[in-house]
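Protocol step 4 of 6: structure prediction from sequence.
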Amino acid sequence: MHDSVRIQNSSLERKVTFLPISDLATNPRNARTHSPRQIQEIARSIERFGFNNPVLIDERNQIVAGHGRVEAAKLLGRERVPTLRIGHLSDQDKRAFIIADNRLAEKAGWDPEILAIELQGLIELDFDVELTGSTDMIIKSLGGAAQESPRGPGS
């Protein structure tokens, strides 16, 4: 890792700024795709939990990370979204980060026992677990450890 990047990343000068969606440019090189269903899931998550993960943009207001969140915000009728400008990356680094940001998250695993306990606890609290991104398939793959309820998957 470059020392200059680490220093710039630790800067407290960065701040979240709400910008009009119309001021943002999608990145034509973004290889990540989002189905209409996933955009709807993201929108439901934003409605329930808030827009807690700002859109990362470069110095030209081009989206580096957060294309799906922007589409979800449009679906919700939002005109502005929280953004965080990351101007310390070269064009080459931005291209690599876009891939790494998505691919590295995909490689994470789940502890099935803890996940089952957490999902079951949410179900018992009558929480709509679909808001967590958990689908029927995931819950069923837990060997029935988490039982469905009227507000569980598929409701």
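Step 5 (inspection) to follow. The first helix runs from residue 3 to 9.
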